[in-house]
Amino acid sequence: MKAKITATARYLPERVLTNFDLEKMVETTDEWIRTRTGIETRHLVGEGEATSDMGANIGIQLLEKSGKLPEEIDLILVATSTPDFPVVSTAALVQDKIGAKNAWGFDIVAACTGFVYAMETGAKMVESGRYKNVIVIGADTMSSIINYTDRNTCVIFGDGGGGVLLEPSEDDIGVIDSILCTDGSGSEYLTVPAGGSLHPASKDTVEKKMHYIYQDGKTVYKFAVKNMSEVSKQILDKNGFSGDDIKLFIPHQANRRIIDAAAKRCGLSDDKVLVNINKYGNTTAGTIPIALDEAVETNRLDHGDLLLLAAFGGGFTWGSMLIRWGNV
Ligand code: UT7
Question: Model confidence over 108-131: pLDDT tens digits?
Fold first, then answer.
């Protein structure tokens, strides 16, 4: 048995922050941001809006699109690094907000690779035969951990999320394979240093701005180019495919230059690569499901097409997934 995607959805908050807005906030330029990252705008949550609100919106859309009742959902997975609370999973909040009273669920913390990790987890749950309707969401409220005076990070990230409904598939449609990797020795290069058990929140941690995301951009960039490119190529080789067999490549949207390097390594032409970083920036666990929903909406996938996902993020974490697409 395989797990297939039977509905997709995305949510981007209304508020938009442009490169020109950022020019007024930190020493940067629209030109620098566009040429170094490919980003033009990003969306930010409104007052009082949190990750579970985005997740619930996505969950409700998935129910509407699939015609499922909330009670039919049996598992909810939320990939996020920006939960509403340190204790109480965002999945639990989403479960309540969408009325999925028969579902259990939990969060998956794998930074920008979170959605691929969650997809693997959800797919295996479906393949086990025990779960029939699994919601997998990737969403992050990056603005909650961004220091808007730090030009190294504030120009890159945005808020948003997306998700899918996974159901059993008896034919060859669905998740084919995945390669998932972790290297915790990279943890110091992309992290929120305080607020966990090592450095609990204190006056000192707040004063030292340790609750904001810290990124050693150059180091992360180097690892991202190498690992996301390699893991994309590896999964093709392992399954006997080449770039020619792929209809669409949806990479994590962290930097246009990282995406281009990974596509080149797999021999994929530009028309096979979904890029929307210009509109949303890096929404961490949100980038891939947002892009997937846009791909579905713009009819970029037909029944039987081969879809390749790949991501790299803090941890370090990285991975790729091959999916045989079925009409949704
Ligand atoms: O999603 C999870 C994984 N994350 C990533 O994959 C992100 C990986 N890293 C990157 O995408 C890039 O490293 C960045 C976009 C973060 C930075 O681009 P870069 O080309 O690596 O720039 P850099 O860090 O080498 O900095 C070049 C210069 C520096 O000035 P000096 O030292 O050469 O005088 C920076 O201070 O650009 C400066 N700079 C900026 N200038 C204008 C850094 N940020 C900015 C900015 N505006 N926002």
Answer: 999 999 999 999 999 999 999 999
> 32 CA to middle of ligand 1, Å?
9
Total number of domains in the chain? 2
Catalytically annotated residue among 19, 43, 57, 112: 112
CA angle 45, 308, 54 (to 5 degrees): 15
Domain check: are 115 and 186 in the same one?
no
- Cis upstream peptide for 312 (omega within 30°): no
**In angstroms, what CA-CA distances link 207 with 10, 145, 201, 202?**
36, 14, 10, 9
- 151 shares a domain with 89: yes
Q: From atom 41 of ligand 1, which residue's Cα is the shortest distance away?
A: 28
The per-residue pLDDT of the chain, averaged, comes to: 97
Told to judge if 266 belongs to the known catalytic residues of this protein, a careful annotator would answer no
Q: How far apart are the first and last CA of the chain?
A: 18
How many residues make up the chain in this entry? 328
Asked whether residue 165 falls in the same domain as residue 180, the answer is: no
Please identify, among 170, 200, 222, the residue that sits at the C-terminal boundary of a domain: 170
Question: Residue 295 has what pLDDT?
Answer: 98
Any catalytic annotation for residue 181?
no
Please work out whether the CB of residue 255 comes within 6 Å of at least one atom of ligand 1: yes
Round to whole Å and give the CA distance between 190 and 267.
29
Looking at the whole model, is its pTM more than 0.90? yes
Structural domain of residue 163, as residue ranges? 2-170
152 has catalytic annotation: no
Residues 111 and 227 in one domain: no
Say what angle helices 256-265 and 30-37 make with each other, to 10 degrees: 20
Pocket test for ligand 1, best of 21, 26, 29, 36 (most atoms within 8 A of CB): 36
